[in-house]
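Render this sequence as a predicted structure.
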Amino acid sequence: MHIDILRRTPGPLTKPIGAGGTTAFIAGGLLMMWLSYIHFHLWQSLGYRHIPTIGPLFLIQSISGLLLGLTIVTVRRVWTALLGAGFVLATLLGFIVSVEVGLFGFTDSWSAPEAHLAFGLELVSLAVFALAGVLCVVGGSSKKAVPALSPRRAERTRGAGLSQSGTP
């Protein structure tokens, strides 16, 4: 995979793919922030803060998820979609492991508060991040702005036989 693909954006909002990609990034970031709120609520109000190891992990998940959600909404690049999907997948797998076999001495349950809601939001988030990434790759833009030369530098490049862009 060429590294430049990770920098691709959804493209211009005036094109359907650009608008769809931007919408997917915003939706994914908002879903991530919602999931962060759920984890914070469980930590703050429903006693998860008192569970050794799991409590601090819930707080870390809620803070880092909020920051990542904000980053996804503002940056909107393929690499942010991958980070979002990876973060949500790790959270999803952590829950499944904690329900099925236990994690750090704690066994969670499907009947735990917000378990079904969070699980559903995580699945939807994965799909949304995948869509955002695909739309960037298919129809996005990776063009970098070429800085204009200063008048002084432009004069020097003309004298060296170079065009305004700096090429012969």
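Summary. The chain has a mean pLDDT of 86. The chain has five helices and no strands.
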